[in-house]
């Protein structure tokens, strides 16, 4: 204690370090001496500036004589452990950096050299029975100095561990900086700290699962009786099924949480919030969040062949200074890929994640427009056009995410709606295959192109279009949607979010429309004449008789003239 305020070169066999730093510090401590031993270093107390992150304030520990040596650990504001680190040689370096916030940071570190091959009796180990005891080395005599013991406790599945210290006496310090016992909820000492204790007490701890870790660390002075503890395994209550429903569309994300499920976790609707706390739920018999896909703090991530939209529902106690109620996170994820929207719900509690999935679809449609302004869609079907008339087609995506692009990759025409063997390429792999096709640059949620109307040579009255559509993240610089035409020999796997196809049609020539109108007129006239059939039947019969007589007279005259000229005839056989 009493080393220079910002950094030092240390050569002692062991030494406590009380460090106080202010804003904008960057200090290096180097521990090194010629010894065939390694170094054990702990930071038993540390306070960083409030709300600081690991990027702006941290302690970085390096396995060697400088900050160029391998990084073996980092301590920052959210470190949920009492870090104990060991070097692989006789040198160790740590760097403390602080941000610009005016705040006094305090740290307490202690290091000592030791021989790794030296083992202490009754110091740590693995306990696997349904119950058992553990004591500090030499208990009830004073524990040794420079002790570091780790006990791993693991009981049967579907149980948790109850740990009770019947006797406990370690060196007393307000922050437990010198000698301490730390208990972890899990099998590691890197995270999951349940508590750190010292002095005279009889603490009790409980894990959330069937694993627990207990650590004893002592410095070079003031040893006491230590501890004796007993652990027992307790059956876990039957797991509560996550009664959570998630639906995703191109527009919205909707989450429904049942009140009974929240109550089983110890919460109600007042404790629930999204990444953006201003997005409040509607609370009825259930707690319902419904919001635009790219809002309320939703995080979008491009994963190559898919895009995910993730939000987090946090359940935490409010209105108290302290709480012993564990926080719960429900991670909801909409995953857009492979012709579907995959909805995933993760329930995260005490490092246990449960999930459920469902499926939906993107909302993509294609239609024709009257002109290149794409302002007035063609609503009639079939769509009657003139041969060589310019047709304007648009594919649209309905989505509230503004950072998506629609790209028309391939478009084929067919006289049949099932697109059988007879097809004709308009666009293939983003390349125009018909010389009348003109594609427009991608525009947010729209893919557009135009071409001249045609007909198939055989007697097919209709033309149908089927287009393969790609949807990409507009923030992806080299996505498939921005590459345009890619000839087959140059094609490679490019980034796109989702692929589907859409069909529009039929298209028919206007002469078919005239035939259809004529047939319709005859049908309509017949329908109108039906009530008056008897009125016109006499006139119709008279007309037919008159025409028949004229035909008979003409036939007789022609027969007479042919015989006069010496001509004959032969009946033509029906083909």
From TrEMBL:
Pfam families recorded: CUB (PF00431), Zona_pellucida (PF00100), ZP-N (PF23344)
CDD domains for this protein: CUB (cd00041)
Ranges that cross the membrane: 536-558
Provenance organism: Himantopus himantopus (Black-winged stilt)
Keywords: Disulfide bond, Glycoprotein, Membrane, Repeat, Signal, Transmembrane, Transmembrane helix
Name recorded for this polypeptide: CUZD1 protein
UniProt domain CUB: residue ranges: 6-114, 123-234
InterPro entries linked to this entry: CUB_dom, Sperma_CUB_dom_sf, ZP-C, ZP-C_dom, ZP-N, ZP_chr, ZP_dom
Domain ZP: 247-488
């Amino acid at each position: 204690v009493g080393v220079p305020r910002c950094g030092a070169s240390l050569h002692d066999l062991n030494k406590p370090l009380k460090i106080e730093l202010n804003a904008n510090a960057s200090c290096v401590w180097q521990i090194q001496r010629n010894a065939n031993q390694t170094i054990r270093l702990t930071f038993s107390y540390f306070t960083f500036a409030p709300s600081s992150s690991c990027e702006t304030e941290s302690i970085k520990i390096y396995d060697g004589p400088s900050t160029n040596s391998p990084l073996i650990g980092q301590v920052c504001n959210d470190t949920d452990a009492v870090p104990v680190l060991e070097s692989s040689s006789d040198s160790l370096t740590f760097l403390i950096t602080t941000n610009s916030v005016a705040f006094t940071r305090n740290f307490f570190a202690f290091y000592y050299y030791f021989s790794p091959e030296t083992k202490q009796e009754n110091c740590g180990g693995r306990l696997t029975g349904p119950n058992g005891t553990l004591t500090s080395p030499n208990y009830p005599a004073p524990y040794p100095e420079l002790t570091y013991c780790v006990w791993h406790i693991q009981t049967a599945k579907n149980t948790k561990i109850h740990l009770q210290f019947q006797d406990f006496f370690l060196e007393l310090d307000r922050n437990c900086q010198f000698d301490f016992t730390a208990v972890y909820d899990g099998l590691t000492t890197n995270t999951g700290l349940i508590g750190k204790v010292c002095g005279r007490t009889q603490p009790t701890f409980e894990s959330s699962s069937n694993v627990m870790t207990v650590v004893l660390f002592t410095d070079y002075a003031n040893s006491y009786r230590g501890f004796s503890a007993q652990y027992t395994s307790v059956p876990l209550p039957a797991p509560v099924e996550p009664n959570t429903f998630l639906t995703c569309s191109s527009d919205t994300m909707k989450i429904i949480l049942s009140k009974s499920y929240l109550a089983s976790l110890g919460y109600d609707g007042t404790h629930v919030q999204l990444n953006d706390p201003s997005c409040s739920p509607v609370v009825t018999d259930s707690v319902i969040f419904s919001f635009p896909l790219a809002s309320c703090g939703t995080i979008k991530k491009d994963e190559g062949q898919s895009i995910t939209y993730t939000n987090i529902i946090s359940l935490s106690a409010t209105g108290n200074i302290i709480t012993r109620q564990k926080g719960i996170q429900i991670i909801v994820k909409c995953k857009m890929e492979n012709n579907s929207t995959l909805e995933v719900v993760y329930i995260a509690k005490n490092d246990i994640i449960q999930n459920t999935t469902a499926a939906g679809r993107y909302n993509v449609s294609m239609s024709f427009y009257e002109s290149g302004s794409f302002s007035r869609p063609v609503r009639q079907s079939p769509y009657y056009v003139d041969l060589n008339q310019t047709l304007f087609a648009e594919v649209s995506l309905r989505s509230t995410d503004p950072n998506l692009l629609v790209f028309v990759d391939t478009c084929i025409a067919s006289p049949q709606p099932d697109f059988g063997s007879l097809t004709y390429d308009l666009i293939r792999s983003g390349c125009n295959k018909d010389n009348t096709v003109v594609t427009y640059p991608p525009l947010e949620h729209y893919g557009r192109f135009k071409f001249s109307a045609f007909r198939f040579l055989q007697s097919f009255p209709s033309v149908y279009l089927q287009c393969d559509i790609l949807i990409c993240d507009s923030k992806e610089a080299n996505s498939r949607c921005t590459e345009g035409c890619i000839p087959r020999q140059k094609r490679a796997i490019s980034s796109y979010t989702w692929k589907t196809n859409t069909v529009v049609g039929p298209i028919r020539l206007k002469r078919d429309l005239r035939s259809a109108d004529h047939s319709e007129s005859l049908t309509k006239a017949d329908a109108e004449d039906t009530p008056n059939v008897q009125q016109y039947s006499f006139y119709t019969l008279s007309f037919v008789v008159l025409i028949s007589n004229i035909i008979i007279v003409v036939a007789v005259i022609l027969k007479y003239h042919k015989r006069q000229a010496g001509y004959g005839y032969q009946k033509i056989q029906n083909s």
